[in-house]
What we know:
about 45% helix
Amino acid sequence: MLGAAAFLSLGLLAPQSQAAPVGVTAPGAGNLQGASAPRAIPVPKSPDAISANPRFRLSSQDGTEETGPRPAPTSAAGTAKTSKLAAANACGDLSGVINSTGAALVQQLKALPQITCTYPLFNLTGENARKAFREDQMVTVANALRDNAATYAGNNSTSTGQLVLFLRAGYYVQDNNAATVGDYGTPLATAARGALDAYFASPRSKDVTDANGEILNEVVTLIDSTHEAGRYAGVVKWMLGSYNGTWPGQMNLAMQHVEWVVDNAFKAKNDARGWRAALKADPTIVDTWAGFITRNEAQLNRLDVVSNVGRYLGNVLDVPELKERVRPLLKDLINRYPNVGPTAPITMNLGWYTRQYDKNNCAAYAICDLGQRVLPAVLPIQHTCTPGLKIRAQDMSPGQLASTCTSLVGQDAYFHRIIGDKGAIPGDVNTDLEVVAFDDYTQYALYAWAIYNIDVDNGGMYEEGNPAVPGNQARFIAHEASWLRPDFQIWNLNHEYTHYLDGRFNMHGDFDAGMTTPTIWWVEGIAENISFGYRNERNADAIAEAARKTYRLSDLFDTVYGQEEDPEVNSNRVYRWGFLAVRYMLQKHPADMETVLGKYRTGDWTGARTFLKQTIGTRYDADFETWLTNDCATNDCGPLPDATPPATTIPLCTGSDIRQFDQNCRRDNLAATTGNYSYHFVYLPAGVKQLKITSSGGTGNADLYYGGGSWATPTSFLAKSTNAGNGETLTIDNPPSGWVYFTLAATQNFSGVTLSTQSK
């Protein structure tokens, strides 16, 4: 049930922040709210996590200040596109509205045959936007709404809705085009208050009817547009206290829009909207809010308005004067309903707020074991790919589990082909990785914070822990890419697995150690390069960025998380430009990269930094710009170089049995027909730390399987590499002593293949 459920509207509300590191204890154990350990790497958000739909924000980073971006107001008329078409067909030309002033403007608006005729106004730009929505025009309409409200009849008989929607459109357009429209100041603020005061003073504004709801839902949103949440806290209280499941559709929509009001009000810096002050002035709003949830508990069904609005009650913990008042209310609500199933969005969201605003006080809410409680129900599937690679999942089929294992095992070989293989960093004992896959982003957002003590305003998290501690569990916490279904994909799987490999084979110590100097250009850049290269996908976003030539190479060596104020700009710098910087260095200056990685492997962060910023400095900036122009524009930034030494440099095996290998030798001209095998084995003395098996050359398609102490086949193996063609590599850490077995399996007839072994 959990795996199939659609939680599209109720992801966790989590503010933008650096990822909180996770402890190395078992998941769900103890008070995870206070756990802390090194190495937490966030990854780009998924399309689900950055949805532009303002009603169903999954993270506060997806929300926006002011009122936008909202393509058009929500109403019974349908989507913005449908509404725009309907308005164009039924309403005629709006030039009269755009070009009129004073009383004529009000007359033009009232003459519009229906509320939806105002929808195209939300799309105005340039001079039309300035003419329609400059401050004096807005003041005129606000004053008209004030006068209109005096005789408001609880419906749109006097065109109240057209006036409200004009104001909504004006705030929206000005919010996104302030330089064009001009500033809004005290005159409009005063007029807007007068209009809202007059509307809410009308007895008919509280009619629980669709006719009134059609107007009320837009007026409630206008509260958010005007930043006046505190002034109208009484309206919110009335709606919370009066709402029940019998409200008709348009009134229900008005209740939904309360979410915008309280969300943006809590986020306003320095309580600019007066909401916190209003709560302190009338603390009973908090009690009414809790009662709103319990009174309507029968509606809790994942996508309901009660969960959507009720979850923001947790923000009251961030009002110090009300913390003691709200604590028992939250404790009751979190433990009153199940933490899985239809009530999970309310219980888990409210639980998250306790972690955010009352950290290390989980006992006050009786949820110190919350992660441990939900873990078996939320992530019931456990699967072993290899002894060092396991999957824990919410809802994956056997085929999906198998394909994920195949992808990861094959990527290990690809990584070493590109980077080379010098073995694990001495002292790094991170031999085991657990991949955690939630069913979709919303499930990840609801539960990952509680089970693994991480922030979830991201697309996943790699937790390395302390690689020097025996038994440490490295973990990649992720979610399925639900928007790609029916195709199956774990979002950022190959990117994150690269972080594991990079940490084990390139970066000394834990993540905090690596952050002593800026290394993000490499850490995220190599993850992007390996992910796209292994999947043989074109990095269109990075190629598009290359054409902009935003950064010099020497600047990219300074990249850190959160460096750019705009989150999207920062994401471009970290991921797209990291991809470009690393690809350029690997292609054009591999010897320099050997030097840098040599210092990274020993933890000589200062030495690497000195080499990058002083020895290299700005010397490659001009060539980097040329490379962006030529190679990226014409050749998709060119291929990644293969660091694997040619098989022909490895000596031929000497034994007469062509199946048998020495520890370091090759056999040429191997062949098999489709469905058949070329079996092989090698004897390893005690103490071998690593065995590398590589195939290359020839024609057809031979896949490589490793069986350890048993014969290997496509249905019985410990590791495999199954790329297209004959280029396969397997790197086996700490292989057993004695005879070990490996096989080339003919997916298609193959011949002329070279197979080699290297051990150390």
